Amino acid sequence: MWHKYPNSRCTHVVSIDTIDRTVDPVTGIIRTERVMGCKQKAPLWIVKVRPYSPPACVFAVSNAAARLMQLFGGSEDAFVREISFVDPATQNVTITSVNLSLSQFATCNELIRYSPASPTHTLFSQTAEIQARMALWRSAADGLEKWLVQRFEQNAHLGKLGFTDVLRNLWEERHRAPSPS
Description:
It comes from Cyclocybe aegerita. There is one protein chain. This protein is an alpha+beta fold. It is built from three helices and six strands; from the N terminus they run ββααββββα.
């Protein structure tokens, strides 16, 4: 799983920094904390603060409302904190992640689990809880949540395909290498 990025399918992940890695001396569980840098397109009303322009505006709103919709002042650069636990005894892996960027407006908490299903198969589960934090602007919050869910689904699909490619490449390398004599 530490080889998941970079891969050709997840080009939005541009950097990965390992912040901490420890091994519990009693359980042998490996805990790794990483920060991932991502770059991807976001709706203009999230990333740009620009003057109101009626022809370019999708909604018929006032100048003040357009400025409110663009007040997020975000960027296409985003950061995600990931913490993973690898239990060598049970061969279970748990990964949690949460967005650091724009978290005052919305959070995406992701949980991934890998566990053995048989000697040749692995169970994979992935869930995410996405929540916009703009109770006063319900329509904006709904729009943001909808966009975040769509983006998460796209990235989750690409991430799974990318990790499958990485695992396939590692498996092929292992089986191509001459066995030690």
